[in-house]
Design a protein that fits this description.
Length: about 300
C-alpha cells in the first residue's frame, strides 16, 4: 500500500476500527479465560467483544501490539505506514513530527514497539542451506567521561558486537560458467562478547542444523562444526570478502552506513531494536508496497 492507497483506505479512526474488527473476526478472537477461540459478539456502542461462553469482555486492541496504548488506531496505522515507507527508516524526531506527537518519548516508544514485532516475526525463521557468518563491530554511544577511560579499536568496550549471518546460494551461469551467489534471509544479533560460547549460542539459535556454514578462520569458531552439517573455513582476505563471505560483508557495510546516516550513534540497549528493523526490511527487500500490509498483520496478530 502506498500513501495514496493509505489515505483512501484509512482516512480516519472509524476506518481503522473497521479493518481491525474485520481482521480479528476472520482470525478468531482468543479468550484467555477459556484458553480457546470461542464464539464472541461485538458491542458496537462500547466497542468490545464479549465471549458467549464465559461472558468475558475484551477490547479491539487486546492481545495486539497496540494493547494498553492510549494512541488512536489511526496514529498506529499511520506509524506502520511510516515505518514501512522507506528502506532507510526515519529518525525518531522526524517520526514524531510526521505523526504530530507532542512528546518525543511517545514517538520513541512507538517506534521501538513496532521494531519489536519486526524482530519477533523474523525470530521464528532459521537460516538454511549455505550460510555465511561473521561479526560486525559497531561503535556505540557511551558516556563522555567513560569514553576516555575505554580502549580504542576493534573489540574495545566502545564497540558492540553484532553476529551476522546470511543465506547464500551459489549459482553458476550455464552458458558462461560464471559463478555468483544469491542471498536469501539475513539475521543480526547483538552478542555480549567475542567468546566461542557467544558465537555458538548465536549459530545454535539462528542457523538450521543441516546447513553448511562458511566463516573465516577464527580460533573461537572451532566448535561450530558440531552445530551444523558442515563448516567451511576460508582465509580472511579481500578475496574472501568479495567471494565466500560477500553477502555477510555487504550487509555489515550497509548496516554501518544506515546506523551512521540516521542515528549517528546508538546505545547498546537499543541496538538490537534497530537491527530488528534493518533486518526485517532487508529480508523483505522485494516486497515494495506490500511491506505495509505485512507489518500491519504482524502487529495485529496476537501472540498467545
Ligand atoms: Zn472465555
Amino acid at each position: 500500500m502506498n500513501i495514496i492507497d493509505f489515505i483512501t483506505h484509512f482516512p480516519d479512526e472509524e476506518s481503522c476500527e473497521k479493518f481491525l474488527k474485520a481482521y480479528r473476526e476472520k482470525e478468531g478472537v482468543y479468550c484467555k479465560t477459556c484458553s480457546s477461540f470461542t464464539r464472541q459478539y461485538w458491542f458496537s456502542g462500547k466497542k468490545f467483544f464479549e465471549y458467549s461462553k464465559c461472558r468475558r469482555r475484551t477490547s479491539l486492541k487486546a492481545g495486539t501490539i497496540m494493547e494498553s496504548s492510549n494512541l488512536t488506531l489511526h496514529t498506529w496505522f499511520t506509524a506502520f505506514l511510516l515505518m514501512s515507507a522507506t528502506k532507510k527508516g526515519f529518525s525518531c524526531l522526524e517520526f514524531q513530527r510526521q505523526l504530530g506527537l507532542s512528546r518525543y518519548e511517545t514517538a520513541f516508544n512507538l517506534m521501538h514497539k513496532i521494531r519489536s514485532i519486526m524482530g519477533k516475526r523474523d525470530s521464528t525463521y532459521m537460516l538454511k542451506g549455505m550460510v555465511e557468518y561473521d561479526e560486525a563491530y559497531v561503535e556505540k554511544a557511551v558516556d563522555e567521561e567513560l569514553k576516555n577511560q575505554l580502549k580504542r579499536g576493534k573489540g574495545s568496550q566502545r564497540q558492540a558486537i553484532v553476529a551476522v549471518a546470511a543465506e547464500s546460494t551459489p549459482l553458476e551461469d550455464e552458458n558462461t560458467g560464471e559463478k555468483s551467489k544469491h542471498c536469501g534471509f539475513f539475521k543480526m544479533k547483538v552478542i555480549p562478547d567475542a567468546s566461542a560460547s557467544s558465537f555458538e549460542g548465536f549459530v545454535n539459535d539462528a542457523i538450521d542444523k543441516e546447513s553448511v556454514l562458511i566463516t573465516d578462520k577464527n580460533q573461537a569458531y572451532v566448535n561450530l562444526e558440531k552445530l551444523v552439517e558442515c563448516h567451511i573455513k576460508v582465509k580472511s582476505s579481500e578475496k574472501s570478502t568479495n567471494d565466500e563471505l560477500n553477502w555477510v560483508h555487504t550487509a555489515i557495510s550497509n548496516l554501518k552506513k544506515n546506523l551512521l546516516g540516521i542515528y549517528h550513534m546508538v546505545t547498546e540497549k537499543y541496538l538490537q531494536n534497530y537491527l530488528d528493523e534493518f533486518v526485517y526490511k532487508l529480508n523483505r527487500r522485494y516486497f515494495g508496497e506490500k511491506l505495509f500490509d505485512r507489518l500491519i498483520i504482524a502487529a495485529i496478530q496476537t501472540y498467545v
